[in-house]
Structure formats: structure tokens, C-alpha cells
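user: can you give me the structure for this one chain? C-alpha cells are fine.
assistant: on it. calling the predictor now.
[tool input]
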Amino acid sequence: MELLHTEPALFTGLVFLFSLLIGSFLNVVIHRLPKMMEAEWHVQCAELRGEAVAAAPAYNLWLPRSACPQCGHQITALENIPLISWLFLRGRCSACRTLISARYPLVELLVAMLSAAVAWKWGVSMQTLGALLLVWMLVVLAFIDLDTTLLPDSLTLPLVWLGLLFNMNGFLVPLADAVIGAMAGYLILWSVYWLFKLATGKEGMGYGDFKLLAAIGAWLGWQMLPVTLLLSSVVGALVGIAMIILVKHDRRVPIPFGPYLAGGGLVALFFGADLTQAYLGQF
């Protein structure tokens, strides 16, 4: 441990390598958790209708083993080495040569780079442990929302409570700031939702967005909410306008806001204090 304290580059490199493995697992969570939720909803609906529910094969984050969706070839350990296996296989299944999405190694690389940045910023500390957990969860939520427009309660709610628990000793922010951040994060978007609905009769966002911003507030404190909201709103608006103009995106089809909130939260985690100070310094 003393060596890791005195050699930040070594610690950062170890975190990078370890986080490649975490990124591989997060790919599984991103892919399987929505399917698990959908299967659970079908079972619940069938039970409400009074229908018999047939036992289904085990499907969770651990079973069945990962396999090619085209030919069913089970992924071996050597074919499942983060980043390296995809490059070695040239992005194709070893059995049927079907293309494997480049998003898998990109998620692994993104997680590893963000984790290395956390390790470099905070070193061997409790702050690093908490920030890593926050980063990993934000990446998962961003990609699930991007794929399904869902932000699962099974992730957002534990993230709120974990943020408050982690800050009981003020590791990232004082507990009072974390509690106010969680409350304000939820109420801000809740208020926007109802103002928009009363004005237009339509729902402008989902309840998952409220909980995600509450989680960011619980981890980073209420002071980081303006930065998070400003960045996520501006970037989200620019991307939405570009999609409508360039790719003729149907305005009636919702654009998930979770990825922009998660991105804003990540920027606030690394640079929020500096950005806030620079802004206030102008006055």
C-alpha cells in the first residue's frame, strides 16, 4: 500500500487494468438488466390476468454464459479478455464471423479511462472508492437509458442511498450538502416535469431522471446541481436539435435525458468545483 501511495502512476495503471474487467461486466449489466426487467413485467402481467406462468430458463447477470446471438457459440475465456479479444478477433465471432459491435470494447475503454482519471485525482483513498462506484453506475445508467429510455429503480434508488451513506463521514461532501442535494435534485426535475405537463398536457421526462439527479446530488452535494443541469441541458438541446435537422428525428419520439445527466454528473465530479469557482470569479 505504501508503494501505491508513493507511486500514483502505478496505482492509476492498476486501476485502469482492473476497470477493463469491470467494464466487461458492465456491458453484461447494460445488455441483460433491461431484458430481466421485461421478463419480470411479463410474469407480473400474467399473474394479474390469472394465467399460469411457465418456468423459464435461468437468465440473470451470471447465467447463461455469454454467446454469439447469431450462431449461439459460447464465448470462451480467451475470447472474453477485455479490449484485447475484440481486437484479436477483428470484431467478429470466431465461429460464424458475424460482426461484434464495437460498443463493447468502447464501453470497456471508457470505464477504464474514467476510472484511471479518478485514481489519478484522488489516489489511494476512500474518495477514489466512492468516485469509482459513482462512475461505474453512471456509465451503466447512461447506456441503459440510451438503449431503452429506462432508468431502472434497481440502480437509481440504491445509488441515492449509497451516496448519502458514503457521505456520512464527508468523504466527498458534508452530509448536510448531500441530503440537500438529493432532495433538491429530485424536486428540481419533478417541478420541471409538472410545469411542462400543466403547460402542454404532455410528459417532458420520466421519473427516472428525477432519481438520477437526486443520486448525483447525494454524491456530489447540492452545489454541483447547477453545473450538472446546465451542461446536460445545453448538450442535450444541441444534440436534439442536430438530430431533428440532420437525421430527421421524429419530434414525437422521446430522446433520453439520462445520458446527458450522467455526463453532466461526470463533468461535475472532476471539474465541478473549478467550473463553479471560475463562474463565480467573474462577479
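assistant: here you go. Residues 8-48 form the longest helix (41 residues). Residues 194 and 201 are 9 Å apart (CA to CA).
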